Amino acid sequence: MHAVLGAADALDEALVGLLGEPAFYRRFGFVPARSMGILAPDPSWGDYFQVRPLTHYDGTTGQFAYAAPFDRL
């Protein structure tokens, strides 16, 4: 997880989003997305949809969208 977060930060990504167990991912700095004003692709995910802001996060809020390749899964 640390390698993924470091790589995303090095690529100037604003944040990383994931769907997972809050108790587990909290240790990596993830928080429920809605607590930051970011809406999950599926509202039923609730607190299981989490984000981790990175260096270039500017406070943007709104609907989260996964990269296009994920739409083909």
Structure in words:
The chain has 73 residues and is α+β, with helices and mostly antiparallel strands. It has one domain (2-65). 18% of the residues lie in helices and 22% in strands. The chain contains two helices and five strands; from the N terminus they run αβαββββ. The strands form two sheets. A three-stranded antiparallel beta sheet has the order 1-4-2, covered by helices on one side. Strands 3-5 form a two-stranded parallel sheet. The longest helix is centred in the first third of the chain and has 9 residues, at 2-10. It starts with a helix and ends in a 10-residue tail after the last strand. The model has no long low-confidence stretch (mean pLDDT 95).
Defining traits:
5 strands, three-stranded antiparallel β-sheet, 73 residues, alpha+beta
Q: Which structural class fits the helix and strand makeup?
A: alpha+beta
Q: Helicity, in percent? A: 10-25%
Give the DSSP E fraction (strand runs of 2 or more residues): 15-25%
Largest β sheet strand count, sense and barrel closure: 3 strands, antiparallel
SSE pattern, N- to C-terminal: HEHEEEE
Q: Total helix count? A: 2
Brief description of this entry?
With 73 residues, the chain is of the alpha+beta class. 18% of the residues lie in helices and 22% in strands.
